[in-house]
Structure formats: structure tokens, C-alpha cells
């Protein structure tokens, strides 16, 4: 059972083209307060990845709809760069495990290993834990603010009919929609183009990965994949 304090919706509705207004991060955070750049990246990460290697890994990505720009890895603590790590578990290969306390998402691999991605997670009052599964996958998904967010941020009401997919859409290039017992939970694992949010609690309960990491996870994850969100 998912325990939660507030959803982040992406129901598939059509809407008008994006206009200038609320910032992407304000949508995610549910407030107008923006984060400053962390500027935490050094010459090399703890596992030996140099900044040049990270820039290559998180470089621009061609896409059928929108050209995805490189992530500014200088704003990401190197410990959140993608890497393969030891991870002992009885869960099946492919299972996704979210560790919100440490801002990581794991995809279970063979031989006691996992691919680990840095993440942003729900802020205080919006965190949840439990088991779900990927019920739907979307590329450049339409984002619809839930009623609770519109109450907190009336300016989001203009997207009540849905914000079309695009570079400014909060759900980004790829989205895994989480379900329980055939019903959409309103929670997602999504692509963020805001690297400074990785390693922070900023969303209304959803989990964000750098776009390049999200594409990597998305491509490996079929519908019905089990997702476990650990307690924070």
C-alpha cells in the first residue's frame, strides 16, 4: 500500500502549447522558491569518473521530437552520477528500488549488482513508501497539475486541461507511471532537466532522474516492472 501526503499528476489530456509563466521547478516543488546552483562537482567522483567522462555520459541526446541538451554536471554532486554498484537483494532482475533517504534509484541487475542513479524525491510532507508497478510508459508525456496543487498554486490552473509534452514540461522526455491494483497512483518516475535538484527533496512525491539517466532506465524497463519505494 502506498502511503502519501500529496500526488503529482500526469493524466493524458490535450492542452494548449506551453507559454511563459510558472517555472518548471516551481511546478515540481509546488512553490515559487527556486534552488540555487549547488556547484558541487569536482575533478573526479569517488568512483573515479572524471568531469570530462561525466560530461560525455550526460551529453546531448538526439530525439525524434525534441533535441535533448547536455546536463550541466557541474551542478551535480559526483556521487549521484550513474554507476554500477554491489546490491544484494532477493528481488528479480529489473526491479526498481527507490531509496529516498539517500536520493538514489536502483535497477537490479544480475550477479548481485545494480545500476544506481541519483534522484530528486518528495519534499517534507509529500514523501511516500510502498510497492507499485509500472502500469504505463510515456515519451514526452502531457502533464496535468492535480487539484491539490492548483489549490496551493492557483497560477497552475491554466494547465488544468494538460500541458503538452516538451522541454518545459515538468515530466520531461520519459515517464514511468506507477500503478497499484490496476489504478494509477498519480506518482511517476520522470526525467528532470534541472540538475541542481538531484540529491534534494523538491517534488510533490514523484521521483526525478537526470534526463540521460531516465532514458537509460526507461529503455530497460517494461510495463509491469515492480517498483519498491523505501521509507525515508
From TrEMBL:
GO terms for cellular component: extracellular region. Keywords: Cell shape, Cell wall biogenesis/degradation, Glycosyltransferase, Hydrolase, Peptidoglycan synthesis, Transferase. It comes from the Bacteria. Residues 94-230 form the L,D-TPase catalytic domain. GO terms for biological process: cell wall organization; peptidoglycan-protein cross-linking; regulation of cell shape. Pathway: Cell wall biogenesis; peptidoglycan biosynthesis. Pfam families: YkuD. PROSITE patterns: LD_TPASE, TAT. One of its GO terms (molecular function) is glycosyltransferase activity. Belongs to the YkuD family. This is Twin-arginine translocation pathway signal.
